[in-house]
Amino acid sequence: MVSRYRVEYQLKSHRKDELIEWIKGLLAVPFVLHSAADDKNNRELVRKRYAETFKAVEELVNEQVEVREQVPAEDFLHHRQRTRLAQLVPSVGAFFTRLPLEDAFALEDHKRAISARVMVAPSFNDIRHILNTAQILELRQYNNAKLVTFDGDVTLYEDGGSLTEHSKVVPFLLDLLRQGVYVGIVTAAGYDEAQKYMERLFGFMSALENDESISDEFKENMAVLGGESNYLFRYNAKLRKLVAIPTHEWIRSPMREWSESDMTETLDLAESLLRDFRTTLNLPEESTIIRKPRAVGIVPGNRWNPETKRTIRVKMDREQLEEMVLTLQRHIENFAPARRIQFSCFDGGSDVWCDIGGKDLGVAALQHYFSPDNPIKPSQTLHIGDQFAPMGSANDFKARMSGSTVWISSPQETVEVLRCLAQGFDHYK
């Protein structure tokens, strides 16, 4: 009998990344044909077939990069459709750098023994790691990362957590700044005051203040862009804290042209839908709707447990969260005021939010704000986050439109990515 989880997962196309699923399909053929016998010759044959597959995909990616480099940006979408990769995977987005996938497979296979498996085919996570490794290899080869941006929850710290002084990621963030790389935290957390972000990042803030090996100029290469693309705060070395940057100093088109009424009406509709969900989906009565200037969301509440005599967090079911975010997306994208702006509906793992803007706009704003005369290019940008899969419910997905990306699943993976970016892959061998 097929498990309930596997049946449900296969039905939920919004959870899948079509490029990764397509590569999985390509690798399934050599796995089925050549991995039956567990002997050295067969393992070598499987490794060779896998490597050939990744080499072929690498060439398809390179073709699309060449097209992007040869045509004006406004014409790329039209020309992209004629590339072989776009014909095979219609939903695939733009690639801003080439990806050495064959070399990345060799490294990941050495580490994970992917080709040695005879019962478990190459998985979603295997391919995700290979794509990540290829992106880091390319950036390292050309020393090309000028701006590295991060999601917050599940990327820099655990969900709902903070960046403490003991966080293993902190030394790597400091090292990026020490090298003159711009560091941005582009998060959905929508606070309009710096203190809230200082509290979430207190370990990093303290380490940055006390690190005498980083010049004040380089320390000020760190910024937080909150609420997807709504509030910008930059580190001020003299004041030793984050300072709010006036909106007119960094906001860009198309955000500059959005009307207040369109944004308000969009959030009004989202709030109305969320209130309806409390009844129609039988959500816990403790769940709370929170309205902010540029966002509205529903979060789990707390309940007193008389048996343990402790306050516990009341969770909403995974199915309830997915139903809310997909329904929000469908209704709002057909709402006239919302079509004149941009918005993001996403499931944060325990809550659901609708934000004005998106991380593509947030990353692009930093590219221009940090270097207004010569904006940082998407090929010089790396965004690290955990929510890339479902287009309608993961707010890192849009960052793919503004720069290269790495898809992680935990703060520990973020540390590993930054270690490889800084030191290479020698520890793999």
Automatic annotation (TrEMBL):
Its cofactor is Mg(2+). IMP-specific 5'-nucleotidase involved in IMP (inositol monophosphate) degradation. It holds the Pfam family ISN1. This is IMP-specific 5'-nucleotidase 1. Its EC number is 3.1.3.-. InterPro entries: HAD-like_sf (IPR036412), ISN1 (IPR009453). One of its GO terms (molecular function) is ATP binding. The keyword Metal-binding applies. Belongs to the ISN1 family. It comes from Lachancea lanzarotensis. GO terms for biological process: inosine salvage; nicotinamide riboside biosynthetic process; nicotinic acid riboside biosynthetic process; nucleotide metabolic process.
